[in-house]
Amino acid sequence: MTAPIEVYCWPTPNGHKVTIALEEMGLPYAVKPVNIGLGEQFTAEFLAISPNNRMPAIIDPDGPGGQPISVFESGAILQYLGRKTGLFYPADERARVKVDEWVFWQMGGLGPMAGQANHFRNYAPSFLLDLRYSAYGANRYTNEVHRLYGVLNTQLQGRDFVAGDYSIADMIIWPWIAGQSSAAMQMDVFPNILRWKAAIGAREPVRRALAISRTIRRGAGLAQAGEETEAARKILFGQRAR
Predict the structure, then answer these.
(1) pLDDT reported for residue 137
(2) Which residue, among 14, 7, 209, has the nearest Cα to 103 in the 3D structure?
(3) Distances in Å between the alpha carbon of 56 and those of 59, 100, 115, 132?
(4) Which CATH number goes with the domain that contains 66?
(5) 192 and 107 in a common domain
(6) Which of 110, 117, 113, 115 is nearest to 135 (CA)?
(7) Is the bond preceding residue 13 a cis peptide, omega within 30 degrees?
(8) Domain coverage including residue 115
(9) What stretch of H or E contains 175?
(10) How far is it, in rounded angstroms, from Cα 103 to Cα 143?
(11) What is the pTM of this model?
């Protein structure tokens, strides 16, 4: 490649997926931070490559036929990178189906449910000063994440990785597990997940990807995830159709 892949992201689980994959695949890339707390995901420039106004997105200057291509949605990005490199995404159709199943399990289940659980546990105000409204959402989504963890824990029984060999399925699921509080989710009841989580977290490419994310966060003056200001919360949680 003559030019690096441009990665438009922010240090969140969805952003980590892409940098982990790029580090694992050894592809050159340049991070273009999209500060979601400032609303940079709603600029016309970002909309041109991510119609959903959500990060991450990439621009590969060496796309199909040697022409640039942009890709949005983390699952689509990892599948694209896997096809591009032939790494961590099997060519055999049966093996690829197994990987795809768990990629979509994360995209359609674990990610959205964990995101809602986090919102109701940490951000949602009480409705008309009645805590029951926030508590219902917190319990509903926390229970669903707990169920999904049970599914993953069972899948990892007797397996080192989610779909057989280490693959983009592991890369796309791991960031949503890595930051989970053990106390909040009672992680001790999921020993297979804990083993898998530690093994992937020890991989050098994963460590490099997370180090880059910490650099982005420090550059933005953010010490911890979730330190959004009230203005940022309105941007993150108050959007309607434009």
Answers:
(1) 87
(2) 14
(3) 11, 19, 16, 34
(4) 3.40.30.10
(5) yes
(6) 117
(7) no
(8) 93-202
(9) helix 168-178
(10) 21
(11) 0.90
